[in-house]
Amino acid sequence: MPTEWKAPAIERTEPARLADERKSLEQWLDFHRETLLMKCAGLNAGQLKARPIPPSPLSLLGLVRHMTEVERWWFRMHAANEQITFVYSNENETADFDETDGADAAADLTRFRREIESARAAVRDKQLDDVVDSRGHHPENTRDIRWIYVHMIEEYARHNGHADLIRECIDGTVGD
Q1: First vs last Cα of the chain: how many Å apart?
Q2: Which residue in 32, 54, 91, 139 has a CA-CA distance of 20 to 30 Å to 176?
Q3: Cα angle 111, 139, 136; round to 5
Q4: DSSP characters for the chain?
Q5: C-alpha pair distances (Å), 14 with each of 109, 123, 137
Q6: 143 bridge partner residues
Q7: What is the pLDDT of residues 9-68, one digit of tens each?
Q8: Residue 39 burial (CB < 10 Å; 0-12/13-18/19+)?
Q9: Distance between CA 130 and CA 108 in Å, rounded?
């Protein structure tokens, strides 16, 4: 009898206490990426899709799908100016959160990891001071690569707080 799929364990790396600015931003972003994966570790697909805090539609899988979109939006669509579409939210802006019932959790976690690799590649040769054009509703809002890193750290920190509460509701697991 096959074993039920569970989200894999992850080793989270602590950021260096002494590092240059770029390395520090990259390490803190990776720390938060790994924190989200850590909140998912050991859970099955049903648990990842659970929405345990009514009336909120948030689930761990929804957060993973959302952050896949956010990685794509800021690093690839803005920083690298790639002409690509979203993975989940093209017709329905909130599909990343809303349309998880029939989702393949294992595939979504793999897609998230791949998007992170693509995001890293998108800014590998960019400098923190490089200014990039905006996409979306406010094309006048240019920003530099540094801003994107800081914003992504903030985005993950906020959603990792959500993930912590969701995980505690699912199985009582708490931690940073």
Answers
A1: 35
A2: 54
A3: 35
A4: -PPPP-PPP-PPPPPPSS--HHHHHHHHHHHHHHHHHHHHTT--HHHHH---STT----HHHHHHHHHHHHIIIIIIIIS------SS-SSSTTHHHH--TT--HHHHHHHHHHHHHHHHHHHTT--TT-EE---SS-TT--EEHHHHHHHHHHHHHHHHHHHHHHHHHHH-----
A5: 22, 22, 36
A6: 132
A7: 999 999 999 999 999 999 999 999 999 999 999 999 999 999 999 999 999 999 999 999
A8: buried
A9: 31
Instruction: Tell me the one-letter amino acid at 6.
Output: K
Question: pTM for this one?
Answer: 0.95
Are 52 and 170 in contact by the 8 Å Cβ rule? The answer is: yes
